[in-house]
Write a structure and sequence with these properties.
seven-stranded mixed sheet; four-stranded antiparallel sheet; globular
Length: 113
């Protein structure tokens, strides 16, 4: 069955960095655009970044442009989110999404002193 397993979340100080990973299985990974979403406490889920099937094009929410980088490795069926210059408002549960259809279980990122 389809599985998306996120990892790499944790507690980081403001200005720090984290790299999230999402390992996919159960579908043809290279055929799906991949995205990262996040949900802050008490707020709705928002789209953070998307990468096309071959990784040639990316899109970002304005709030993360210049700080976050989405990438994928189709040989490893894995998508990444490199996050730098983290801010407290980046705190939330980060979800991996395949083709705007399949969801992972999420990984918690907390940016705090």
């Amino acid at each position: 069955q389809v599985q998306l397993v996120e990892s790499g979340g944790g507690l980081v100080q403001p200005g720090g960095s984290l790299r999230l990973s999402c390992a996919a299985s159960g579908f043809t990974f290279s055929s799906y655009a991949m995205s990262w979403y996040r949900q802050a406490p008490g707020k709705g889920r928002e789209l953070v970044a998307t990468v096309t099937t071959m990784g040639t094009s990316t899109n970002y929410a304005d709030s993360v442009k210049g700080r976050f980088t989405i990438s994928r490795d189709n040989a490893k069926d894995t998508v990444y989110l490199q996050m730098k210059s983290l801010k407290p408002e980046d705190t939330g549960v980060y979800y991996c999404n395949a083709g705007f259809r399949y969801w992972g279980q999420g990984t918690l990122v907390t940016v705090s002193e």
